[in-house]
Amino acid sequence: MAKYQIAFPATGNYDFYVEYAALESRPTEFQMDMELLAGTCAATTGGWEAFQFMRQGSIGVAAGVHTLQLRRDGGAIPHIRAFKFVLV
Fold first, then answer.
1. Are 20 and 70 in contact (CB under 8 A)?
2. In the chain, where the domains are located
């Protein structure tokens, strides 16, 4: 399990992207403030060095700092390099 503090500059709906690499499927659960955001990173990217940004879903949040948590029961998570939230 890992936790990150994310500061959102404005209230609104955001698309959620993860930049990751995975030779095999490693589905990972993401939560925002303890609420399920998405089960993500199930797709492979072609290798452990083949990083790609992939849209994983969307979320509505209020402006301010929120806690993003990721976890995977029973195995390793993909190689994650970055998260991106895009206001839509």
1. no
2. 2-87
